[in-house]
Design brief:
The protein is an all-alpha fold and 236 residues long. It has eleven helices and two strands, in the order E-E-H-H-H-H-H-H-H-H-H-H-H. Helices cover 68% and strands 2% of the residues. The chain is globular.
């Protein structure tokens, strides 16, 4: 078996599992969320492909990094309750905490059917109100036979594809241009995933204090306003 710096390289079935888990069509509820870009579009901060790229890059290096590290730590076997507390501390917005837990519940519900495992059943029983989505993502990745780096990559992929996909609907943006934005970010996505995986592995050994705490205050502020909109296209 070939290996990488983060453990055994995923076997073919695991690679397929990674593709399935990262697919926006996986029934985990992500299609109902914009990753904050709906509020950014309304405020005029995201207007076209160039400003979308700026938004995605900022999200990638802040909340994307944190989510990916949490996911990697969960895949590596860190205590999910401790990770959930760490996620709370790194998510100042109550609206975003609620959204993350809703997404975690939906992901766990889907994963228990797709990759049935005692670990996922135990997680569902231990946290009936749900855990933060990145923590669940890591547990699901482990159940699917993936490595911490795979979970980190899925998380950072989601941090950019969610707003890019939503921007197509919100702006009528050419999907080709949105895809080009994501392609241009590919090297940064890989770099952030590597960094997050290293942080996650340290956290699994030394505790959640080893996790990054990068923040995006404007995302928190606009999430609190967005949740009170009387009419909105996306849940977050």
């Amino acid at each position: 078996m070939t290996t990488t710096g983060n453990g055994p390289a995923p076997q073919p079935a695991a690679r397929a599992a990674l593709l399935l888990l990262a697919d926006g069509r996986f029934p985990a509820g992500g299609h109902a969320h914009s990753g904050g870009v709906e509020a950014a579009v309304a405020a005029g901060r995201v207007r076209d492909a160039a400003t979308l790229a700026d938004f995605c890059r900022g999200r990638l290096h802040t909340t994307g990094l944190v989510a990916a590290a949490l996911a990697a730590a969960a895949t590596a076997g860190a205590d999910p309750t401790a990770l959930d507390t760490a996620a709370d501390a790194r998510t100042p917005s109550a609206a975003l905490r609620a959204s993350s837990r809703r997404l975690g519940r939906q992901l766990l519900r889907a994963a228990r059917t797709v990759w049935p495992a005692p670990t996922l059943e135990a997680l569902a029983a231990a946290a009936p109100r749900g855990l933060h989505q990145p923590v669940v993502l890591g547990a699901v990745a482990a159940a699917a036979g993936l490595q911490p780096h795979d979970a980190a990559l899925a998380a950072v992929h989601d941090s950019t594809t969610t707003p890019a996909t939503a921007a197509v609907r919100l702006l009528g943006l050419d999907p080709f241009h949105a895809a080009a934005v994501l392609a241009d970010l590919a090297a940064e996505v890989d770099e952030v995933a590597e960094r997050a995986a290293r942080c996650g592995l340290r956290a699994a050994t030394h505790g959640p204090a080893a996790l990054p705490a990068a923040s995006a205050p404007l995302l928190d502020l606009t999430a609190e306003a967005h949740v009170r909109w009387p009419v909105r296209l996306f849940a977050s």
